[in-house]
Design a protein that fits this description.
The chain is built from 9 helices and no strands. By secondary structure, the chain is an all-alpha fold. The protein is elongated.
């Protein structure tokens, strides 16, 4: 088990060491230049220190959360960011709120960079072309729009719920 984990980590470090910004930019697609610093920091940390969390800042991830990840074709992250708050709120009656949004904004670009490096390494190992790298990454405007619609619906439901709670509270005070 530990040997397998060690081999995976070594492969990941090798992927980062062999990663090329041109490939990463091709994978990321629009506004790739905004990821250059995050990629460079993550690459340095991975190659020199063997890993670690790289924190940068991403305003779109702060304001649009899962919709931004869906736009960036990060399906698993987007799904988790949609479902996890609902599950946590249902079972524990709490909300992570702003703290979770700030954390997501801090790891968003390095998450995209990590995904890019991992997928590019697999594509290149299979003899893939630049066009295959571009097709594997990029953005999905449709997913971004649909994610935005879901985000607006969630915010509307939260607002309606808060108004209903306030009305119920006021009604209970007037009955006293």
């Amino acid at each position: 088990m530990n040997q397998t984990r060690t081999l995976r980590k070594e492969a990941l470090i090798a992927s980062w060491a062999n990663s090329d910004w041109d490939d990463v930019a091709r994978f990321i697609g629009p506004n790739a230049h905004r990821f250059a610093s995050a990629w460079g920091k993550a690459r340095d940390k991975m190659v020199k220190a063997g890993g670690g969390l790289v924190l940068t800042w991403c305003w779109p991830a702060l304001f649009f959360g899962f919709a931004w990840f869906l736009y960036r074709k990060q399906w698993a992250v987007g799904a988790v960011l949609i479902i996890l708050p609902l599950v946590v709120g249902y079972f524990f009656s709490v909300s992570a709120g702003g703290g979770a949004a700030i954390f997501i904004a801090m790891i968003a670009k390095s998450t995209i960079a990590q995904d890019a490096v991992t997928k590019i390494a697999k594509i290149r190992a299979a003899g893939g072309s630049d066009a295959e790298i571009a097709a594997a990454g990029g953005v999905s405007v449709i997913a971004g729009v649909l994610g935005g619609i879901v985000l607006v619906a969630e915010l509307a439901l939260a607002f309606v719920g808060a108004v209903m709670d306030q009305q119920a509270h006021l009604a209970s005070l007037s009955n006293v």
